[in-house]
Structures are given as C-alpha cells and as structure tokens.
Amino acid sequence: MISNKYVDGYIKLYETGKIKLNKERVLLIEYLNKLVLSRDDLYFDEEQINNFKRFTEKWYFPLEPFQMFIAAFAFLFYKENGRNFFRKFLIMMGRGGGKNGLITALTNFFISELHGIPKYNVSIVANSEDQAKTSFMEMYETIEEHEVLEEMFYKTKVEIKNNATKSIVKYRTSNASTKDGLRDGCVIYDEIHQYETNEVVRVFSSGLGKVKNPREFFIGTDGYVREGYLDKMKERANNILEGKELNDSLFPYICKLDNAEEVEDISTWEKANPMFCEPRSDYAEGLFYTVQEEYKDLANDPSNREEFMTKRMNIPEVDLAKSVASWEEIMRTGYEEDGETLRLIPELQHRTAVGGLDFASIKDFASVGLLFKVGEDYIWKTHSFVRKGFIDTVKLKITPKLKEWERKGLLTIVDEPVINIKHIVDWFIEMREIYGVNTIVADTFRLDLVKTALEAEGFVLLYIRNPKAIHSLLAPRVETLFANNHIIFGDNPLMRWFTNNVYVHIKKDGNKEYLKKDEFKRKTDGFQAFIHALWQADNILEEEVDFFLADIKF
Asked: Is residue 161 within 8 Å of 100, Cβ to Cβ?
C-alpha cells in the first residue's frame, strides 16, 4: 500500500460527504484504491510534491485540495527504475475551474532547479496563439513581478529559460509545421476539444522520450466537435475507469454534471467545477456568483443554454431547435463500438429502394444513396464523391478522415476539374443490379446535368421544385424517426458528419429548413440526399415487398 496526505485527504473529503463528485471521479477513486494505491512497487516523491506546493503558493496562489490531488500523481514513480507511473493527464472541467493556473504552476516548476531535470523543455500547444500564450504569459508576468525569479529565469515574449537547468518553455499553435525539433520533457495541449484528429498530438509527442520522466497534459472543457480527438480520449478514459483497460498510463480527471437536469440544483455545480466546493476562496465565490447570474439570464435568453451547459457545466447539450438530432441519437444510427455495430443493416438484396441525389456544386461534393424501409426502420445506403482539388484548396480539418473513409468504401476522391456525372450514373446502375431501384429524387438545382444521362439509362427522375418547403413538411417526421431510433446508417462516420453539420433554421412562421452550420467546410450533401429520398419514400416503398421473385417457393 502507498499513500500521500493530499491524495488521502481529498478522498476523505468525498467519503465524508464534504464534497460532491460526478460519476467519473467516483470511478477514478475506486480505480486508484483498487489498482494503484494498493501496489507496493510505487512511491510518491514527497519531496517533489512538497516542493511544488511551496513553490506554487509562494509565487502564484494557494492550491485547492483537488489541485494537490492531481499534482501528487504527477510525482508517482516506480521504485525499480524511477520512471513516472502516469505519463498522460486528462484534465476536464467547467470554465473557470483553474486548469490553466495549475498548468502554469506545474510548467514553471518543471523547468526549475527544484524539479532538477536538465533541459526539461515544455511546449504549450493550442489552436490559436492567444490561447497557447495564456499560461505562458501568466508565467512571464509572475517572473517579471519578482526580482528573485528574474535572476533565476531568462525571459522573452517567445520563450522562458531557466538559467540553471537550461530548460525552456515555448508556446506553439497546433499547426504541426511550427514545431522546430525542441526536445520536450513535457507537452501541454490546451483546448483539446478543438482537435479534429490526433495529428497535432502525434507530431508533438514524437519529441518526447529523450528526456527523463516525459509527461503530457490534455486540458480543456468539452466542445462541439464530435468524433474528434477529445471523444477518443474520453472513450479511452472510460475504458480505464470501468476496468476495461488495466495497463494505461493516462490519469483521467473529468469534472461534469452527471446529467443535464442537475443544472437546476446549484449544489451540484461543484461536480462540474471543483472550485465551487465549500469552503470557497474569494476567487471561487466571485466565479460562483458570475455563473449564477449567467444561469438566471437563460430565462430571457435560452439560446445561450447550449454554450452554458457545454462550457460551464462541461456537459454538451445539443439545442434541438438548431440541430437535427442530439449526438446520441445520431450515434444510434449505427456506431461501431468495441467491434460491435449497435445498429446492423439488415439484408437488403432484392428489396425496393428509392434513390436520393444531392450536389450543390460539382466542384466539391456529390452524394447518392438508396433508402429502404424494413418494418418501421428506414435504412440509408449511401456513397459520396469528393473532388481532390476542393479538399486541397479549402484545407478541410477532416481531410485525414476523408482518406480513412475512402478506405472504408464510404466515398471516392476524384482528381478531376469537376465531378464527372458518369460516377453518379454508374453508381446507380451498379446498385440497380442488386436492389430494386428505379426512381431517383433530387432538387431541380443543377439537375439538368444528370437528368439526360440517368433517364437514358431508364431511371425515373422526380424533381423537388422547392427543397426548403419539403424540409418543413418532413422536420417533425425526421425528429421522430431519430428520437425513436428508426433510422439506420450502419457504421458510417461520413453520414454522421453530414448529419451533425446540419443547422435547423426556424423561420418567423415556425417552419423549419435544413441549412449548413458552415457554408464552406461543413458539408451536408449526404443528409440532403437522404431527405430527398425520404420525401417520396412512402409513395414508392412497399413494406416487405421484393421486386424480384427470389423468395417465392414453387
């Protein structure tokens, strides 16, 4: 058994009911008690922990119990070789919870003589320069205010260097090309909810391992990017906390409400922001008052609820007045988890389908698809064509994912001046050899480009003269289908991306129309093709009727 007074003290606060913890932190304590603190091959470096506390409270601020709890595990080592046990730290909590302050203090300590590791360089990485400079400038200004620190550290507006250890702190944007080969001991990734892929982490983490006791800190609140890097990190954290992964160097400290309804009880807010635990400091008391005022303002400005829940309570809540469906509902269309697809696409061969087609511009995306009905479920089988020149020019953040989705057969990237109509026609011809598809629905915009080619192959084209008019007609039905889990996309992350990119605009007359959240970078073609097919689905599809006689027994 191992122990540390700051760790033991924090756990005791929970066990005696003096603080409230969300599910993830309760599981963290259970995990630590069962699988970490019970070991005899580890030790807390008490000298380092106490030095960090004295350093921080002398030059920065008094440390809260939760901050010392986290910090203690940064100095947990193997007895045999002195290697640090936790190498990665995921720290998530509501805005104002002191994440950056803790990181500033840790970073300054890591490059100091007290830490004692020469050339233990630290990179602070964020999507924007302003965010990356947050902790850096706090450190810079602290050093500037104290003559003693001025003698210990050499500082400029781009780097801070300890004169004794030669350790350097730099801030960097997440553009991988800005990394200039610094041999890091530690990397801080700020506002990780903005990372679409693992590309940034992969590049900066590659510099670790050349200095003793490498560490990575991932900090931020939750955000609006789904299936990005943060979602993968949260999944990894849950696997650790639920005992599915027993050999992982990640320390997950996640603060959030357990459910959205808890926001109505302000005593639960400390689950999302540990600063709100009593007794509160002057800073925490002022922040608590500010957040209460923001919550009261929601009565007059409910449009800000999504931001409040996501950033203050660290629990993303989709505003259903703006989104087609919640992310959970979109995921239920067929997300693959642990090798198991939650919604399997049933056998569809020889079934009747209605085709859907959408392409706003033949210079970027075009989506085709077949809509089937089996029982109460609507099954959407789709494919997209993407022009390489568009990807290269617009520089979509999801470009790495597009290539992965192409490997999965969900799309085709074509290197052409415009998307050749032949791709669309050939896809429908190929599908007709397997399924009963004869009718294709599309809007009239640019339909003349494919009309002749498709009709020449014997397809019937139905035109939607006013697409936005059918949006209002279909909106209640679409919401009901998602809510009742009657839409199946299969394991199709491209279709989930299309759907999550849709903005539901409520007009003054109460009618709804489906628009793009971002006109250029958040494409919705696959969803619009689905809507086109759904418009005529019940007029064309006959439940449980095959167009071939394959199932008739003579």
From this structure: no
Domains recognised in the chain with CATH numbers: 52-62+85-276 (3.40.50.300), 327-540 (3.30.420.240)
Burial 519-539 (b: 16+ CB within 10 A, else e): eeebbbbbbbbbbbbbbbbee
Q: Which of the four pLDDT bands, split at 50, 70 and 90, describes residue 180?
A: low
> Taking the model in full, what pTM does it have?
0.77
Residue whose entry in the numeric block shows the structure tokens 């550290």: 153
| Residue 181 reports pLDDT greater than 60 | no
Reported as a single tens digit per residue, the pLDDT across 433-464 is 999 999 999 987 666 778 889 999 999 999 88
**Spatial contact of 7 and 37, defined as CB atoms under 8 Å apart:** yes
SS3 159: strand
Integer Rg of the chain from CA = 27
CA 432, distance to chain mean position in Å, is 38
User: 349 is written with which tokens?
Assistant: 């061969």
Which alpha helices (H) appear in 127-216, and where do they start and end?
A: 129-145, 147-152, 199-205
pLDDT at 28 exceeding the cut of 60: yes
Residue positions counted in the chain:
554
Q: Report d(CA 3, CA 15) in Å as an integer.
A: 16
Q: Give DSSP secondary structure letters for 296-354.
A: HHTTT-GGGHHHIIIIISS-----TTTBSS-HHHHHTTT-EETTEESSPPPP-TTBEEE
The Cα–Cα gap between 258 and 313 comes to: 10
Average pLDDT over residues 256-283: 97
Q: Is the distance from CB of 441 to CB of 447 less than 8 angstroms?
A: no
| Percentage helix, strand, coil for the chain under 3-state DSSP, each rounded to 5 | 40, 20, 40
CA distances in angstroms from 450 to 361, 436, 529, listed in the order given: 13, 20, 15
